[in-house]
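From the methods appendix. Each design record in this collection lists the tokenized structure first, followed by the designed amino acid sequence. Records were kept in a plain field format so they could be parsed without special tools. The example shown here is representative of the layout used throughout.

RECORD:
FOLD TOKENS (111 positions):
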């Protein structure tokens, strides 16, 4: 059940409607023109809210969460986490943006 839920969520995040860009495009958006930075922050803010909901559901079903944020974090701090991950892992720029974001959060907030 949990694996199916995670696969569905990852599939939804990977669709063009959600955000089909690569890690490079995500980096460019988060460091580019002001309007792109705003778009990046809204996307990461929405991702953060969805990620926390997913983690709460995993706990409810008796599974371990993907990452463990200690408290609410700002959208700009979430952007910093993702950009730091991309800079430390340049190969991530070739990965889908949702995977990069998930991996960045798992690294930044281990359980």
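DESIGN:
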């Amino acid at each position: 059940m949990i694996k199916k839920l995670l696969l569905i969520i990852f599939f939804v995040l990977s669709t063009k409607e959600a955000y089909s860009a690569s890690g490079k495009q995500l980096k460019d958006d988060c460091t580019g023109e002001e309007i792109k930075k705003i778009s990046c922050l809204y996307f990461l803010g929405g991702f953060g809210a969805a990620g926390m909901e997913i983690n709460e559901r995993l706990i409810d079903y008796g599974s371990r969460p993907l990452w463990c944020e200690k408290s609410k974090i700002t959208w700009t701090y979430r952007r910093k986490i993702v950009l730091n991950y991309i800079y430390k892992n340049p190969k991530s720029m070739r990965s889908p943006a949702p995977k990069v974001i998930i991996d960045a959060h798992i690294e930044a907030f281990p359980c």
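APPENDIX NOTE: Confidence is low (pLDDT under 50) at residues 14-18.
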